[in-house]
Task: inverse folding
């Protein structure tokens, strides 16, 4: 049994405590007493009175698509969903995408910024088959489990318009993907009923979850959300369906929006957002009231869709706070909670907290309080993943 005591840390900015860890799990917290003795054979780490957060959770990533670590790639192609798909399909082979090496580098950036678990969409199509999933798994293995990874098999090039993709998604589900994805059933496939029915059948047959990318806005997007709600309830998939992006929810207002949020809550459908400026505003307070679970993610990082991103989930939380005009302390703390405790279900954790029973994922920062940490996004001074030190002084120790 490996025993560690992380001394003198301030969970969520509270009073200093000593946190005990055994075999990768938090086993206890006690008030910090300077000079107090610890049992022989115990590893002692000095937290220096730093603010402590649970490990950050990235609920929506695309780690397989990055050119991180490669020479700079200039942005090209048309700035539409279809244009980005076409550009990526044309250029990805020349960049060696998917690549285990680049995927590993992205994952290391996640860890360096304190992210210890991620839910990542991985492209599955007629060109790459399931190779992207293999690359992601290989990269995660190189990190020895420091970053826990859940895979969503994602049909970035469409489903029904590409015969054979449904079969690939079914194979991915059989081979261990925890979720299968969908993409703009109307806007891309132009057959929302067929796409959703096909995906729901796989989810039912294989016991996996659904995660639907939905960029379509306004009435077209709302129509697809309503179809998804109906099918979720009919197939008894409550708690196993997520909408990614879902810009249409922010396009409607008033009673119609409130009714839709209530229906999402009743169907147990969750939501993930990357909080983009312009289209990232959500009725997040109403979603909390109706039990619509919300998670945040980085989306792609330096890929053929966008040159932006560095893997820092605190920056994503800060973007969410800005988009939604958050000012009060409780609101700012809630934005940080979206990237930590609130996102535990997105990576199938019953709990994710600085408390007994949780995986010992701990992030230490030099900050007065949680609000200060969010607004300044200081470097991560120490990161523990499963009780193992993986970052010191902002740099990886792996």
Result:
């Amino acid at each position: 049994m490996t025993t560690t005591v992380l001394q003198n840390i301030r969970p969520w900015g509270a009073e200093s405590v000593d946190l005990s860890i055994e075999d990768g799990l938090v086993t206890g917290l006690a008030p910090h007493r300077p000079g107090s003795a610890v049992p022989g054979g115990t590893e002692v780490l000095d937290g220096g009175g730093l603010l402590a957060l649970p490990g950050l959770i990235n609920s929506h990533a695309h780690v397989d698509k990055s050119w991180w670590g490669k020479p700079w790639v200039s942005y090209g192609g048309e700035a539409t969903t279809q244009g980005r798909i076409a550009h990526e399909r044309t250029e990805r082979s020349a960049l060696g995408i998917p690549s285990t090496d680049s995927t590993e580098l992205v994952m290391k950036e996640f860890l360096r910024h304190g992210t210890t678990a991620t839910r990542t969409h991985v492209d599955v199509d007629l060109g790459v088959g399931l190779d992207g999933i293999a690359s992601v798994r290989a990269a995660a293995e190189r990190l020895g489990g420091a970053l826990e990874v859940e895979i969503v098999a994602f049909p970035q090039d469409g489903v029904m318009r590409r015969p054979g993709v449904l079969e690939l998604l079914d194979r991915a589900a059989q081979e261990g993907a925890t979720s299968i994805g969908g993409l703009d059933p109307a806007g891309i496939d132009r057959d929302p009923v067929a796409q959703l029915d096909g995906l729901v059948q796989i989810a039912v047959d294989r016991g996996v979850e659904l995660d639907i990318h939905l960029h379509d806005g306004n009435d077209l997007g709302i129509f697809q959300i309503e179809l998804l709600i109906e099918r979720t309830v009919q197939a008894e998939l409550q708690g196993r369906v997520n909408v990614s992006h879902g810009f249409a929810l922010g396009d409607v207002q008033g009673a119609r929006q409130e009714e839709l949020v209530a229906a999402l809550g009743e169907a147990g459908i969750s939501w993930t957002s990357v909080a983009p400026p312009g289209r990232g505003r959500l009725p997040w307070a109403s979603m909390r009231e109706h039990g619509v679970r919300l998670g945040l993610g980085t989306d792609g990082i330096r890929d053929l869709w966008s040159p932006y991103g560095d893997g820092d989930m605190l920056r994503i939380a800060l973007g969410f706070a800005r988009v939604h005009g958050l000012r009060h302390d409780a609101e700012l703390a809630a934005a940080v909670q979206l990237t930590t405790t609130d996102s535990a279900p997105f990576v199938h954790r019953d709990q994710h907290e600085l408390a007994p029973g949780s995986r010992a994922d701990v992030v230490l920062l030099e900050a007065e309080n949680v609000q200060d940490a969010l607004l300044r996004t200081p470097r991560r001074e120490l990161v523990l993943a499963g009780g193992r030190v993986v970052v010191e002084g902002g740099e990886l120790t792996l």
The first strand starts at residue 3 and ends at 11. Residues 9 and 49 are 5 Å apart (CA to CA). The two ends are 21 Å apart (CA to CA). Residues 3-54+352-396 form a domain with the Urease, subunit C; domain 1 fold (CATH 2.30.40.10).
